[in-house]
Amino acid sequence: MQFAQRLQALQTNVFADMDRAKAQALAAGRSLIDLSLGSSDLPTSELVLETIASALQDPNTHGYALFQSTQPFRVAAAAAYQNRYGIPVDPETEVLPLIGSQEGTAHLPLAVLNPGDYALLQDPGYPSHYGGVALAGGRVQTMPLRAEANFLPVWSEIPKAVLAQAKLMVLSYPHNPTTAIAPLEFFQEAVAFCQRHELVLAHDFPYADLVFTGTATPPSIFAADRDKRCSIEFFTFSKSFNMGGFRIGYAIGNAQLIKALRQVKAVIDFNQYRGILQGAIAALEAGAAIVQPTVAAFEARRDVFVDALHQMGWLVPRPVATMYVWAPLPATWDGDDIEFCTQLVAQTGVALAPGSGFGPAGTGYVRFALVHEPPVLLEAVRRIQEFIASC
Fold this sequence. Notes:
The protein is α/β, with parallel strands linked by helices. It has 2 domains: 5-44 and 289-390, Aspartate Aminotransferase, domain 1 (Alpha-Beta Complex); 46-286, 3-Layer(aba) Sandwich (Aspartate Aminotransferase, domain 2). Helices cover 41% and strands 14% of the residues. The strands form 3 sheets. The chain has a 7-stranded mixed β-sheet, with helices on both faces. Strands 9-12-11 form a 3-stranded antiparallel β-sheet. The chain starts with 13 loop residues before the first helix and ends with a helix.
């Protein structure tokens, strides 16, 4: 049996690889503490659950949800952006419901790239950004993110020959996996760069709300592109509202880009169950009442976890945003990050994500996802300390 060549670029995936390693650890009798996947363990708000539950009894919600039936959700999403960022949004032409932001970032290349066109992607970066370009037949030019440059790309490093064939740039701040944030000045430079080189600028914004005390609210890309000349932004309910399993998000942006992405989406799926859309509306309207306890929980976990690692001598950076800790490998470790993660889970049951799984520039790092309560995180640190001491 023969398969499409495009699958060759999808052979490896950091999460799939770690899933196999975790399964082997469980089969060996290890007690698993999974810090490899950014799937929130916090519960969905009762308000949201009650809203969805009440919709189940309404037969009007049981059929296909075509675009027009999503109008109340699009209005709520537009209002939320206008209220938070002061940016006018047309819910009819500038908003598109999505099955999470990953759907949007993976499908956008099908709308804007021809085979052979380049996309400029962050390295390290989120795997679906790379996968979407591969499925569209595009080529990737990585933009390495380095600690000494605050994990921001350096425009002058992008080859001119690549820029001549590039159609898309994808950014994401607060950033997964590095936890970096970007100032408005950076986004202004990015918008000017993309306009100068006729690039679509896509901003993946899933961690818009997961920002800790003392850190300014991260800017939307539209603070730098208020007229939406070249930009599209993706938001998901998975992080802010702990709704990962409900698969709900949206795109806001340039009307032509929204229309093009809608055309792709129309041949792939309908929209979510209308009860989920109603639950998402309730989440948006509740806003900070739901989001603030989630942010406080992850901030408390960050402090417990980072302090414990510091006490054992692993001086990892303290993140100001996201639900992750991005750390260089311990100085005493003489192997690579994949070896560290696979041996750690095999010997202790603690699962991390190797940095190289997010791109070559992630080599030498590991990512911790703070998706357990503090006592479990402390147990993970205890096991990690024993593992490092035994190496």
